[in-house]
Amino acid sequence: MLYRRTLLSIVAVASLTSSCGLFRPVNPNPNPSSPQPFDSVAATPIAEPSALITDPGALNDAKIVAVVLASNNTDISYARLVPSRGERTDVKEYARRMLTDHASINGLLTELTTQLDLTPEDNVVSLELRDESAAKRDQMRELSGYAFDSTYIENEVSYHRTFLYSIDNTLEPRARNDQLKTLLTSVRPVIAAHLAHAEQVRANVLTRK
């Protein structure tokens, strides 16, 4: 199937980039006596963040799809702010990657829902994601240069940690359709690679490399 082939391509790219030195995750709070295994982020469950999904309620497959679409659209909306407000090349390259990858994942979801005759169903979680992203976009629109770059990339770290947590603890466990479960499981390494990339860019931004 087309969506399976496309998904495999995205995962392959994510695997390559996450193993590359450029995208090696960086622990922002290093502790020499207790190093954190950031290099295994693709396989390690993410500890609970200040999560958006705190009370998912009775999520079904249609609601899960709506949540994932809203999550992807949220990050796409952030990335679209970068070209006119950011100044760093690495931040702009990261944003271009987010536009491409999250749009591709949305394409896979749309293809799968068409195949399954499943209509995404908005719910409290997907609507909360939209509201929060709108508020953050309003904040970032007031910024430019270093202030924008640092705020944007910090938000990307938080966003991808939350997305990974929701995949691990809410979305994949509650999915009932096997193809949807497979898609969510396969997309996880892509989101983990995004987190690794964001952490590396954040480290460079904070040290102004």
Q: How would you describe what is shown here?
A:
- The protein has 209 residues and is an all-alpha fold.
- It has a single domain, classed as Ferritin, CATH 1.20.1260.
- It is built from seven helices and no strands.
- It has helices at residues 2-19, 61-79, 82-85, 89-116, 124-141, 145-174, 178-207.
- Helix 1 (2-19) runs antiparallel to helix 4.
Topology, pairings included?
Blueprint: H1 2-19, H2 61-79, H3 82-85, H4 89-116, H5 124-141, H6 145-174, H7 178-207
Helix pairs in contact: 1-4, 1-7, 2-4, 2-5, 2-6, 4-7, 6-7
Principal-axis shape: elongated
Distance between the termini: 43 Å
Uncertain runs with pLDDT below 50, 5 residues or more? 8-54
Quote the average pLDDT.
Answer: 81
Order of helices and strands: HHHHHHH
Helix-and-strand structural type: mainly alpha
What CATH calls the topology is: Ferritin
- Percent range of helical residues: over 70%
- Rounded radius of gyration (Å): 17 Å
Using the 3D structure, state the CATH architecture: Up-down Bundle
Query: How would you name the CATH homologous superfamily?
Result: Ferritin, core subunit, four-helix bundle
Q: Determine the strand fraction and express it as a percent band.
A: under 5%
CATH domain class = Mainly Alpha
Count of individual helical segments: 7
Write down how many β-strands occur, each being a DSSP E stretch of 2 or more residues: 0
Report the major sheet.
none
Number of structural units classed as domains: 1
